[in-house]
Amino acid sequence: MSTYLITGVSRGLGFEFLRQLSEDPANTVVGLVRDKATTEKKASVELHDRDNIHLLQGDITDYAFLKKAVDATAAITGGALDYVIANAAFISTWSAFDPIGVLGNQPEKLEQDLLGSLNANVIGNIHLFNLTIPLVLRGHAKKIIAISSGMADIDVITKFDITESAPYSISKAALNAAVAKFSAQYAKDGVLFLSISPGLVDTGNFKDATIEQQQALFALMGKFKKFAPHFTGPTTPDLAIRDVLSVIKKASVDADKGAFISQHGDKNWL
Ligand SMILES: NC(=O)c1ccc[n+]([C@@H]2O[C@H](COP(=O)([O-])OP(=O)(O)OC[C@H]3O[C@@H](n4cnc5c(N)ncnc54)[C@H](OP(=O)(O)O)[C@@H]3O)[C@@H](O)[C@H]2O)c1
């Protein structure tokens, strides 16, 4: 039996974490969402009101809200947590395809986009780690996982000219650094901090893409194929989360502390 806190479970990969982890009735799975009523309805229809799922309202950019949610989690799990999965993220479509130099022609919008990315993906998660660490120290598994992105691999960005999603990539690189810092502090207490990229997964983020965005997405896929010739397109949430959970299960403080790895457990992002 394990206890989990997952952020951003309303849809996409977060909902898939919720679905797969709650399949085992011995698990207690707490999910943080911004719109509790809507997610409750979705979970009721798709997951048939599993009674090991607990949904809490919270926005990771609001510290007071987050603290309340972590306190409520402690009340549900008896004051301890085995796993934290920091999945929620601000994923900007505005800055998804233009290079940062082009975005620089709209400095105010660029600043807004960068701040939005950093607030949710870095600062929100740092607060989440600090608020949950006392619970995790009392848990058995002691694993805090940040869902990152291969888009933050600096060697890949420079080698394959990945100009896309600069603010998002910058925020995920900063998140990886935060995970390494937390690891440096808490590995001695047996806590594994780890950044994992789930690969490229179709979660519907570009279902309303314009023709230009579709063309840009196609061009990005071409760049991906250069560094991963086996790549044929995005995978499904089901497969991606199965892989990520298997990496989480196998990972240990000794072998993986503070690392940034993929759903395959290495640096193969696709
Ligand atoms: N899909 C991919 O190909 C891919 C690739 C690499 C990495 N990732 C990472 O995987 C994770 C999940 O991605 P996804 O594709 O499932 O994204 P998604 O479908 O856009 O879902 C994002 C989730 O984050 C929540 N969220 C956003 N801002 C929040 C905030 N301030 N407070 C609380 N929750 C917030 C959203 O809630 P609302 O419903 O309330 O907006 C939603 O539940 C992200 O960390 C992403 O960076 C995804």
TrEMBL record:
InterPro entries: NAD(P)-bd_dom_sf, SDR_enzymes, SDR_fam. Pfam families: adh_short. GO terms for molecular function: oxidoreductase activity, acting on the CH-OH group of donors, NAD or NADP as acceptor. PANTHER family: CHAIN DEHYDROGENASE (ATSC), PUTATIVE-RELATED, SHORT-CHAIN DEHYDROGENASE/REDUCTASE SDR. This is Short chain dehydrogenase. It comes from Pseudomassariella vexata.
